[in-house]
Amino acid sequence: MELLILTAGETGSRIDAWLTRSVPGLTRSAAQRLLENGQVTLNGAPVKKNHKLTAGEAFTVVMNDAVDIPIVPQDIPLDVVFEDADVIVVNKPRGMVVHPAPGHPAGTLVNALLFHCGDSLSGVGGEKRPGIVHRIDKDTSGLIIAAKNDAAHLALSAQLADRSLSRVYEAVAAGSFREDFGTVDAPIGRHPNERKKMAVTHVNSRPAVTHWEVLARYRGYTHLRCRLETGRTHQIRVHMAHIGHPLLGDEVYGHARLPEKGLTGQCLHARELKFRHPRTGAAVHLTSDLPDYFQAVLNRLVSEI
């Protein structure tokens, strides 16, 4: 880990653009991640991404050690739900990491996609995330889309930005919901004390909106459908914990697992995906079945009613 002290010699520029110019080899997206993670401070306080410079300000920047993670194709079975020359949609199993990172250099969805698709993946996501348009957590199962060329990637990313790419999840949350549906509108940013966690906070955060609907009520638990309006890291998990209903099996934000052998795992599944095909403009609506562990949890809860 490297500590940099950088003093601004200009006024009015955005901090992320200035960092990119000031630190050799630092990309704009990497600079934004440093800011999001609270690794850039001014007078001891984290700096927001939209901060405008004032000449003479001295910033402290904590740089992570660079880790070279070779990405190799791996023959890992994929549950392909949809595929053509532009797009591939996969039903990701629980426990699979989406892209390589320290601690997970192989066995990821990206490794599997590189084997399955060969060279036909978009480069827009960068060398570590080829084709990846959006992410889902390691312990979340369900539908995830990847682009096979740059034009498709840019078109799908635009749909993600204008919220026309729709993602619907199903979850089991602890506790009973009084209403049948509702919305959590609360900004999400890095947890102030635990940097690997996210939290509802107004400090260095981004807007986050989750719409939820009750599908079934059980003794002590509720089966929900959740639609994302935004796509923040761990959004559904953080929002449900914030309103007092952590997800069953979420060992970071949530509720203890059910005691029976086999009834383990985070009960969060990306069930539906809607988007416009990036080449034809046709509406595409895909669904996936609940995985066995999720269905087993529901069966157990039904038996207790």
Key features?
Structural Genomics Hypothetical 15.5 Kd Protein In mrcA-pckA Intergenic Region, Chain A; 9-stranded mixed beta sheet; 15 strands; 4-stranded antiparallel beta sheet; 305 residues; 6 helices; 28% strand; Pseudouridine synthase; alpha+beta
Task: Tell me briefly what this model is.
This protein has three domains: 2-63, Structural Genomics Hypothetical 15.5 Kd Protein In mrcA-pckA Intergenic Region, Chain A (Roll); 80-161, 2-Layer Sandwich (Pseudouridine synthase), CATH 3.30.2350.10; 166-290, Pseudouridine synthase. Helix 1 packs across helix 2 (28-36). The chain has six helices and 15 strands.
CATH third-tier fold name of the largest domain: Pseudouridine synthase
**Nearest-integer average pLDDT:** 89
Intertermini distance:
53 Å
**Broad shape:** globular
**Which CATH C-level class of the largest domain is it?**
Alpha Beta
How many strands, which pairing sense, and closed or not: the largest β-sheet? 9 strands, mixed
The overall number of domains is 3
Please work out how many helical segments DSSP would assign: 6
Radius of gyration: 21 Å
Which architecture of the largest domain would the CATH scheme give at its second level?
A: 2-Layer Sandwich
Oligomeric form: single chain
Write the layout of secondary structure elements.
Layout: E1 2-7, H1 15-22, H2 28-36, E2 40-42, E3 45-46, E4 58-63, E5 80-83, E6 87-92, H3 109-117, E7 141-147, H4 150-162, E8 166-174, E9 181-185, E10 188-190, E11 198-200, E12 209-218, E13 221-228, H5 235-242, E14 268-276, E15 283-287, H6 292-303
